[in-house]
Write a structure and sequence with these properties.
- The chain contains 24 helices and 24 strands.
- The protein is α/β, with parallel strands linked by helices.
- The strands form four sheets. A 13-stranded parallel sheet has the order 9-10-11-13-15-17-18-19-20-21-22-23-24, sandwiched between helices. It has a five-stranded parallel sheet with strand order 2-3-4-1-5, sandwiched between helices.
- Helix 22 links the parallel strand 9 and strand 10.
- The longest helix has about 35 residues.
- The N terminus and C terminus are likely disordered.
């Protein structure tokens, strides 16, 4: 394939982007640009097909493609001139419009002339070559049938050869579909077909199941079925996929299922479904599919099944619920060739063993994984780019495990431990920390980073690098907001998820020691009370560095006395809509550096006994989520080490008013303060302006916020100010221009803001402004010319021209008009 093939696609794509920009402008070239844009959009897929086919073109076609590339390059040059031309130079614009029209006609002539002839020639060659190949296949098949006639299978079929051909064709079809399913090969395809047959081929089956051990690909199979075109068409796209987990909120899930089945999607989460309502059949005749993933309890499952006409339920679980399910498909482990393909993809980035690898060694390690997809992925990723001695050592360690048979799932944990055996010590410790959080929940990255920084002596950059390494090894998954990623992104825009088998591995490895000597004291799942094992050992101190508790409502009497002389991190996971009484033993956790309180219920819980935090002099980080705060703890001494406080989905209740707490006195060294989705926050308290050490202030998604303190300019250390998605914020105070250290300002989605402050030019250190979706801001103050440090502006098309006029005086400025990003992922939270 010639060099020109590689670049034609890139040239066309670049030209298409420039034509789109021209079409958005009101210019003489707009009509020709729109026609040319349509032509390029039709041409681009063909160029990409040539580019990626790997087929060498005949000389005459290569020459014509070369000419097309030159024409497209001329188009890019012409488009650059159009975009650079000012709207007032009518004569120049008229010339450019004529050139654009000529270019459009030239490209159209190529499409309607030579390309049509190429298509006819290709069809002719393809028909001839296909007929020739079929002749050869038929002859080979006939000879094989004659020699192996005795090996025929079945009656009336095509015999052994037909079976083999069908198997190969199915394998090739599976590979052509792409995705993880293709790497799992025929096993996944056969499983998918069997589940499809149960789901859309059997009207007599209403509750079906997919079962298998952890990590065997149950969820992947269910997702493949849900994406299948025949399935989506059969149910008219009415498919609901829910993750249940070991600690579900049954009422909330039940309301979601019934709302979906009945067509009342706006139903409140805590809606109680009357028994008589289950008999309603007004809208229930239409087909729908409810998929319940990761189900652990029969009692929970029975509450989530609605046996109504037209509704089918697909249950995905490690267990067979034979009393409930009409039929079940048991996920089979991968065959040898399928295992090898999946392992090679994780270890080498391709589906076959590369020539440089030790083929025998690779196959021995694959054999030790015994066909389990998750083990193949994780162990393969852990061996990626490692020397052969490392592989040999890994094989020996895997060989020490007992053969996998009925106890496959239990032995899996020991076998998968090899995936972290050779991790650097701090990376391994960070992986084990992930067991501190509930299963099937997104872990805010801000929480992880804060925790790792405090207990592993890392800085934030090192902690983030560890996160990326764990992700590269398939030990966790990073879920990133579309806006996140640059140096000014907040970590709460990113979260982490982990497969429950990997979480089980972290728990398994953390629970090896005596309970009082464990480094991590963890509750594996939510319970109504603290573990009995903990209560039996309260006579001795618990030496854990991390303590994680997962319960429901907790009153004062529900706690018992415990001593944690070495605890540095306390994570309180709970689900409550009423009151959560903080454990009294917090008061004596003198080494506590990070306190994380997360409520996973559908509404806020009142936080009681907050006063126990008043004298935690070593506390550096506080994260509060979905709680209602009456007042912050009144400390008799300043919390001089407190650096970060985050209120997420909290009810503030005026708890920060100066009459309630003196913030500068109580928190003299606070550097980061975050309010996210605090819907009762109407204004920031003036006392915040006295936080002289504050470097990062984030007020995001606070839809009731109406004003900022007038004295905000007093925060001389502030470097980052986020005011993202505060729709009722109408003005920015004038003194915001006194924030001499400010480097980043985010006012995106503040749709009521009508202008930037007149004195914004005084922010001489400002490097980046994000003002996307600020639809009321049409013009800029004259002082923006003084923003000598400004490097990047993200804004809408309507105001981008004003910023781009500054590029002459501010040569380092880059103006970005972002693509529209519409996502409903937050609906799953």
């Amino acid at each position: 394939m010639a060099v020109t093939d590689l670049f034609a696609g890139e040239i066309a794509a670049e030209l298409l982007k420039m034509l789109i920009s021209i079409c958005r402008r009101s210019s003489l070239c707009k009509s020709s640009a729109e026609q040319l844009r349509t032509t390029i959009e039709q041409l681009l897929p063909t160029i990409h097909e040539i580019k990626y086919s790997g087929v060498e073109l005949p000389p005459i076609r290569q020459t014509q493609l070369d000419r097309l590339s030159e024409t497209l390059k001329d188009g890019i040059e012409l488009s650059s001139k159009v975009l650079a031309s000012t709207r007032w130079n009518v004569y120049k614009n008229l010339q450019l419009a004529r050139k654009m029209e000529k270019l459009e006609k030239k490209v159209s002539r190529f499409l309607n002339g030579p390309m049509q002839a190429h298509v006819l020639a290709d069809v002719h060659h393809m028909r001839f070559e296909t007929a020739e190949r079929f002749d050869r296949m038929e002859g080979s098949a006939r000879r094989l049938e004659q020699r192996l006639g005795a090996m025929r299978i079945g009656v009336g079929g095509g015999g052994w050869v037909d079976e083999a051909v069908k198997r190969v064709e199915m394998e090739e079809d599976t590979l052509a579909e792409g995705g993880l399913g293709n790497l799992m090969g025929i096993g996944m395809a056969l499983g998918k077909n069997k589940v499809k047959e149960m789901v859309i081929g059997r009207d007599d089956l209403s509750v079906l199941g997919i079962c298998g051990i952890g990590g065997s690909g149950k969820t992947t199979l269910a997702l493949e079925v849900c994406r299948d075109h025949q399935v989506t068409s059969y149910f008219n796209n009415r498919i609901l996929f829910l993750t249940v987990s070991q600690s579900p909120n049954v009422e909330q899930l039940r309301a979601k299922v019934w709302g979906f089945v009945s067509g009342c999607d706006s139903m409140e989460p805590n809606y109680v479904i009357p028994h008589w309502n289950l008999q309603i059949q007004s809208k229930l005749g239409s087909r729908c599919l409810v998929v319940l993933d990761d189900v652990w309890s029969l009692a929970v499952l029975e509450q989530l099944i609605f046996r109504v006409p037209g509704c089918k339920t697909l249950v995905v679980s490690r267990f067979k619920f034979s009393t409930v399910l009409n039929d079940t498909y048991e996920v089979e482990l991968l065959r040898e060739d399928e295992s090898l393909s999946l392992f090679c993809y994780s270890a080498f980035g391709q589906k076959t063993i590369p020539p440089s690898a030790n083929e025998n060694l690779v196959k021995q390690i694959v054999n030790k994984c015994k066909g389990l997809p998750l083990a193949l992925k994780v162990i393969g990723a852990s061996l990626r780019e490692q020397p052969e001695m490392y592989w040999t050592s890994a094989k020996k360690r895997l060989s020490k495990g007992e053969p996998i048979c009925e106890s496959h799932e239990n032995n899996l944990l020991d076998r998968m431990a090899i995936s972290i055996q050779y991790l650097p010590k701090k990376v391994k410790e960070c992986f084990l920390d992930l067991g501190s959080f509930p299963e099937d929940k997104k872990i805010p990255l801000e929480v992880l980073i804060n925790m790792w920084v405090e207990i592993h002596d890392l800085d934030e950059e090192e902690a983030f690098a560890i996160l990326v390494e764990l992700s590269d090894r398939n030990l966790l998954k990073i879920v990133k907001d579309a806006r996140a990623g640059d140096m000014y992104s907040s970590y709460y825009e990113i979260s982490v998820t982990q497969h429950d088998v990997l979480r089980d591995l972290a728990l398994h490895l953390s629970n090896q020691e005596n309970i009082n000597d464990r480094k991590r004291l963890l509750m594996p799942r939510r319970d109504t009370e603290l573990p009995k094992e903990w209560e039996r050992n309260v006579d001795q101190p618990f030496n854990a560095q991390i303590v994680s508790i997962h319960t429901g409502d907790m009153r004062e009497m529900d706690w018992f006395r415990m001593e944690f002389p070495k605890a540095e991190v306390l994570i309180l996971n709970f689900s409550s809509t009423e009151e959560y009484f903080l454990p009294p033993f917090i008061e004596n956790m003198e080494k506590l550096r990070a306190l994380i309180v997360i409520n996973y219920s559908t509404s806020n819980a009142a936080l009681g006994n907050f006063s126990v935090c008043s004298n935690l002099t070593n506390l550096r980080s506080l994260w509060l989520e979905k709680v209602s705060i009456s007042q912050l703890p009144k400390s008799s001494i300043p919390l001089k080490k407190m650096q970060k406080i985050s209120f997420v989905l909290c009810k503030i209740n005026n708890s920060l008013d100066q009459s309630v707490v003196d913030l500068p006195k109580t928190l003299p060294c606070l550097t980061e303060l975050t309010f996210d989705h605090c819907d009762d926050l109407m204004k920031l308290p003036p006392s915040i302006c006295g936080l002289q050490s504050l470097k990062n202030l984030s007020v995001t998604n606070c839809h009731s916020l109406q004003e900022l303190p007038a004295d905000i300019g007093k925060m001389k250390s502030l470097q980052i100010l986020r005011l993202y998605a505060c729709p009722h914020l109408r003005t920015l105070p004038a003194r915001i221009c006194e924030l001499v250290c400010l480097k980043y300002l985010n006012i995106s989605q503040c749709v009521s803001l009508s202008c930037l402050p007149q004195g914004i030019g005084n922010l001489i250190r400002l490097e980046k402004i994000d003002m996307r979706e600020c639809s009321q801001i049409w013009s800029l103050p004259k002082s923006v010319n003084s923003l000598k440090s400004l490097r990047q502006v993200i804004c809408e098309e309507d105001v981008s021209w004003a910023w781009k006029d500054l590029e002459k005086t501010l040569p380092n400025l880059h103006v970005q008009v972002p693509a529209k990003c519409f996502s409903l992922d937050w609906l799953h939270e």
